[in-house]
Amino acid sequence: MNGAGTVVDANLVTWMLLTIVALSLVQGARKGAKGSVKQLALFLAGAVLTVSAVILAAFAATAASPYVQSWASERILDRPSPDASFFAQFGYTALAGLRDMPLFRFAALFLIIHALIRVLVGFVTRALADSLPLPAVSRSPGGAISRTFGGMIGTALGTVRALLATAVLFAYCALFPQGPMSEYIQQSGLYREVAAQIIRPATGSLLEERLPVFAKAMSVELDQLWQKRYDVIDAELPDDIVLAAKSVAEEKNSDEEKARALYDWVGTRIAYDHDKVRAYEEQGDWREQNPAMTFATRKGVCIDYARLYASMARAVGLEVRVVTGLGYDGRGGYGAHAWNEVYLAEQQRWVPLDATWANTGDWFDPPGFADTHIRQEGVSA
Description:
- By secondary structure, the chain is of the alpha+beta class.
- It folds into two domains: 4-227, no CATH class; 237-375, C8orf32 fold.
- Helix content is 66%, strand content 8%.
- The chain contains 15 helices and six strands.
- A four-stranded antiparallel β-sheet has the order 5-4-3-6.
- Keywords: Membrane, Transmembrane, Transmembrane helix.
């Protein structure tokens, strides 16, 4: 330690950690030695069982992951039809996530297995509480000696709790170094001392280096799952959209011909809604609209173009994605943008297209598409 002057300060984090220890001390003194021994034993038993449950769930999720992927792959054969129920679309989205997203699949399996283990742990803990033999430290449990021993045990227990709280704060600062409160947390002298002397040596690079990498990878997959919401939101199509899509693609034979015909139709029939953009930029008023509204009004912004294109493409049996990210603004910068990718079965590849920009040139699978479109890490597959 560097001295009390550098450890105890006016920082609220410091006083929170000290309060955890103080409350445990008071609680221990009130319970006495016998009650504190029981509380400490239950806490330690619970901690061991909790750690064991996490380790067991992690190993079980890892082992089960390839089997679940195989199971999901066998059941996701075709995208549900546009008139399929919400539950069919939701089930497709969830199973697609289990099939295509390794970290999401691991996290889902981990949470399920861990929950089941915790139920069993609860029974074990209650059984221990009922059968735990407790030493008689003092003939008078409420006496001064008993309270003193209880306070000492409570202090030890409070110290462990404070260490756990510090570890949680350390993990938060590692994940969000520029996040709210991160700088303030690290200004706490007691936090800095405990983190430097105990948490960092004990965890090595696990929390400070590996956790942010894992969190970023998980964020990528959550982005993918989040963008799949359009598969659910736009599942049910009005008859006029289906009829229009089938009419556009009626005499087209290949997937590429159908995809390009729909690109031309959306790109020339829908007008860019500058009023919608101004309302959002100046007033914060976002006018959410579904493909039916875009089709009826013939107006929209990039996400509306992309959602309408995706809906019409699915109506004629094409596999399509809504992709979000950044688009070049023509002035040296980039802004939020949305476009599509469509799968051409005869070529066995996904091709990008941007119906919003159709009036500025040919943006159906042009060379250098990625130079002007920076995709967000996730896509709606």
